[in-house]
Amino acid sequence: MKVSMSVNGKQVSGEAEPRTLLVEFLRYELGLTGTHVGCDTSQCGACVVHVNGSSVKSCTMLAVQAEGAQVTTIEGMAQGDELHPLQAAFREHHGLQCGFCTPGMIMSAADLLKTNPSPSEHEVREWLEGNICRCTGYHNIVKAILAAADTMRGAARAAE
Amino acid sequence: MVEKGIGARVLRKEDQRFITGRGRYTDDINQHGQAHAVFLRSPHAHARIRGIDTSAAEAMPGVLAVLTGEDVKADGLGNLVCGWLVKSKDGSPMHMGPHPLLAQEKARYVGDRVAVIVAETLEQAHDAAEAVVVDYEELGPVVALERAHDAGSLVHDEIASNLAYDWELGDKAAVDAAFGRAAHVTRIDLVNNRLVPNAIEPRAAIGHYDPGMDHYTLHVTSQNPHVHRLVMSAFVGVAPEHKLRVVAPDVGGGFGSKIFIYGEECVVLWASKKVRGRPVKWTADRSEAFLSDAHGRDHISHAELALDQDGSFLAMRVNTKANLGAYMSTFSSCIPTYLYGTLLAGQYKTPAIYCDVQAYYTNTAPVDAYRGAGRPEASFLIETLVDQAAGELGMDPAELRRKNFVPKTAFPYQTPVALTYDTGDYEATLDEALRLVDWKGFAARKAESQRRGRLRGIGLSCYIEACGLAPSQVVGSLGAGVGLWESAKVRFSHTGKVQALTGTHSHGQGHETTFAQLVSEKLGIPYEDVEVIHGDTEKTPVGMGTYGSRSLAVGGEALAKACDKLVEKGKKIAAHLLEASEADIEFKDGNFTVAGTDRSKSMGEVVFTAYVPHNYPAGLEPGMEESAFFDPPNFTYPAGTYVCELEIDPATGTTEILRFVAVDDFGNVINPMIVEGQVHGGLAQGIGQALLEGAVYDESGQLLTGSYMDYTMPRADDVPSFEVVTAAGTASHANSLGVKGCGEAGAIGAPAAVINAITNAIGRRVEMPATPEKVWRALQNTQTPQAAE
Ligand code: FES
Ligand code: FES
Asked: B681 and A137 in contact by Cβ < 8 A?
């Protein structure tokens, strides 16, 4: 069947079976391979994207459920050459090693910072419960998210 | 001075693609005409395969082929091999049970590959897999390691007692004599829990046979594509080496589990030929990964330490049973032997050590190297034993260690278990760690915790490891089937840009950055002008890959040597251009200068001349491209002290790590940011082993911990922020860079620090993983039931 949605601000449509997961649709139908699959039990968070502004594990949602939705993936986070503050902070603070968990981490953290612009370290760690990283020991991921929160608050103040 | 050279905290080159979602991992690749493979796996731990009926599956829509062990046999393909020959005490070679690509006659663990289904779509392949009928005759499974020797069943019918080898190291008579003189003997029995590596990217492979070219290409999640090429051509025989290209693109973590040559990647390559050259893709789901990735650790040990009345170590005696799983994986035999027994001296000058290891087959997934591989098992054993000795003698565990350290004046130091430590300063790392954690102030902190009803504990671990896996002659004398050198090629282009090709592979370690820093420094050119290339056997020179913290110490040194050759050649060209004698040319910061003058030529001018050799030294080859191999004279020996401070809630048995201090001596450091990141990741894995992780099979051989719902991975709120210091380095003598390697230290040193801290807090040791249940039960002074082990 045909599924249509907005992905990273562009209207797209493609073929999906009723059982096709959103992550499969993104990766195989649209070729957006930045969203990863790390598990089959909705635990690892490598697949996190935003659907209508909230973080969602795209392995836990059917493509057809996203019919008509606004979807943002890691590929849609930078504005042209300008990285999202979280992307920049992950690089600046060495918040990634193999990079496989990174898109999910960034998408998940972006949702956190939207609802809680100045989280404590503890709150960041608790929020990341649903995202597994095997490489970094989380130390620099947490650091990067706190730093990005700082930057984003600064930018928000400047805009006021 | 180059700006982003050795020692600089340079941000990583590779990050841009990963943070924007443009990494290219194996499953991201889709090839024209690609078909999909699904493996049918044994649901039984041990079963005879009486027959397989594939006819219904073959008739299903979209199915291109259904292949079994019989087809593998008919095509004359060889078995997977373990490349390291270990000999038993009596001199007999280890018993290696055949490890076919697809099971033949018997299935030997839950998850053993029984058939492969290739279809147009993944869904069709899955559906067809359910239509394959396998007639199994269930056999008694061998599951528990401690009973493997008389389990009443044989994993490999021809291997008695399920014993692969019974190995020993050290002078048993000297050790027995020393125990006879001991004033005190400390004894310990411990388990090193079985772990699942769990790189977040599951394994994947795409095999493609090109009938026109008679050429094979394999994309695979590999830490060592050249080793894949070698084993698949020389042993499995699926493609000749000169017609096989192995590409390991971006790889999402390995931790050892992607070193090995598995059946799946061999099968997809072979299957591609069977379906007339359609590319065949397979990606593991996480459940498959749990069942079929090689697991790690899984030892049961008894150890004894003999001390004199002053607390000096006289001798150590260790017996270990190691679980190999159902088959010997690629490196499996050397993990509980040469990477374990040889490390049992730790940081101590114990004069006599004896160790023997019995390695058993069981009907469980193969066990092989996982981050640290043998060295975490050794370090955990020594450091819990030493801590227990301190407790029994009423000594400060730091002071008992200090008293027995190999003193910094004693290097190079020959241990009684074969290794020669090149450099180290164990007191320096201990002192720095004690200072950082405020060891002396612990009693006051403990009292404060007590007032809040919490049990506070502090634990030390002084680990050592042998890294930079190489010395080919040494590993060869120990049974390795290959040499463990590394190779490099450094190539200038006309415009002065550099490609640095390495036989190592980066899957998170940041080689594209570190190696560029190294080459930039050596050649005096901007970091931005260096591109590091790895992971493709048709681009990079030969290589041995990345494991055992060897990439920089062996592969980096090969790059350094290739750079040195370029500089030597550059001197000849510069001397010609400057009409000076070659001996008078000095190279510094990218310029060739006639000594004592200001007459010089830049690297760029020299490179241009080498490619446009209109005015050129007679007899000299044009071009600026050099290769080098490096085979070091010794391992490197990173070492350090870790301290864990934690609190336990006696009501729930829950452990909270308050502080984790890690002071490491990695020798010289090229990029401190990357090195610290490696330590952080290792620490989380070590803490995971100590508190959370454990692979559990039930009596019938079913894996109970087969998903992230059941196997507890460390999450962000399970670990603290770490305090990591890597400054106090003693340069290694095994390479000119003075580097030692940092990839495994965290996982090696952390478990004992955590467990010793728990023991310190509650007064008795619990086995890993020290789950809240086990800690709580220990506090109630009751026995933890066996099933929870
Ligand atoms: S792939 Fe979605 S949570 Fe793991
Ligand atoms: S960076 Fe590798 S899993 Fe997080």
From this structure: yes
Residue B728: per-residue pLDDT:
63
One domain for residues B663 and B783: yes
Q: What is the pLDDT of residues B284-308, one digit of tens each?
A: 999 999 999 999 999 999 999 999 9
Residue B624 placed within a domain: yes
Expressed as residue numbers, the domain containing A28 is 2-76
Q: Give the residues across from B593 on adjacent strands.
A: B586, B600
- So what's the pLDDT on residue B789? 39
C-alpha A25, offset from chain centre: 16
Ligand nearest to the backbone CA of A101:
2
pLDDT in tens, B34-70: 999 999 999 999 999 999 999 999 999 999 999 999 9
Number of domains in chain B: 3
CATH number at residue B672: 3.30.365.10
Which residue out of A139, A140, A142, A145 would a mutagenesis test of the B interface target, given it has the greatest number of B Cβ atoms within 10 Å? A139
CA–CA distance, B715 with B720 (Å, rounded to integer): 10
Cα–Cα dist B205/A115, whole Å:
40
Q: Which of B585, B612, B630 is the last residue of a domain?
A: B630
Same domain, A118 and A58: no
**B52 within a domain of the structure (yes/no):** yes
Ligand 1 atom index nearest CA of A48: 2
Q: A48-97: per-residue pLDDT in tens?
A: 999 999 999 999 999 999 999 999 999 999 999 999 999 999 999 999 99
B127 with B263, same domain?
yes
pLDDT of B3 reads: 85
Q: Based on the domain organization, do B248 and B110 belong to the same domain?
A: yes
Q: A138 CA distance to ligand 2 centroid (A)?
A: 9
Distance CA B695, CA B298 (A): 9
Task: Answer yes or no: do A57 and A101 share one domain.
Answer: no
DSSP B156-203: STTSGGGEEEEEEEE-HHHHHHHHHH-SEEEEEEEEE--B----SSPP
Please indicate, yes or no, if residue B317 is contained in any of the structural domains. no
The total domain count for chain A is: 2
Query: For testing the chain A interface, which of B30, B200, B257 should be mutated: the one with the most A CBs within 10 Å?
Result: B200
Beta bridge partners of B99: B80
For A:141-160, CB contacts with B below 8 A are 141-143
**A120/B contact by beta carbon, under 8 A:** no
> What's the CATH code of the domain at A146?
1.10.150.120
Which of A51, A76, A101 is the last residue before a domain boundary?
A: A76
Cβ-based neighbour number of residue B11 at 10 Å: 17
Task: Write the CATH number for B58.
Answer: 3.90.1170.50
Q: How far apart are CA B200 and CA A135, in angstroms?
A: 9
- The protein residue with its alpha carbon nearest to ligand 2, atom 4, reads A133
Ligand 1 mutation pick, A36, A43, A128, max ligand atoms within 8 A of CB? A43
Residue B178 is encoded by which pair of tokens? 């020393």
Predicted TM-score (pTM) of the model is 0.96
pLDDT, average across residues B766-777: 97
B437: amino acid identity, one letter: V
Number of Cβ pairs < 8 A linking chain A and chain B: 182
- Residue B787's pLDDT is 42
Interface of A with B in 74-103 (CB under 8 A): 74-75, 77-78, 83, 87, 90-92, 94, 96-103
Asked whether residue B166 is assigned to any structural domain, the reply reads no
Residues of B in contact with A48 (CB under 8 A): none
Per-residue model confidence (pLDDT) at position B543: 87
**Cα–Cα dist B329/B82, whole Å:** 5
Do the Cβ atoms of A130 and A94 come closer than 8 Å? no
Residues B656 and B760 placed together within one structural domain of the fold: yes
The 10s digit of each residue's pLDDT in B380-400 is 999 999 999 999 999 999 999
Point out the domain boundary residue: B238, B270, B292: B292
Which of these ranges, B422-426, B473-477, B494-498, B689-693, has the smallest mean pLDDT? B473-477
∠ CA B275-B277-B281, nearest 5°, is: 75
- Owning domain of residue B407: 372-467+635-787
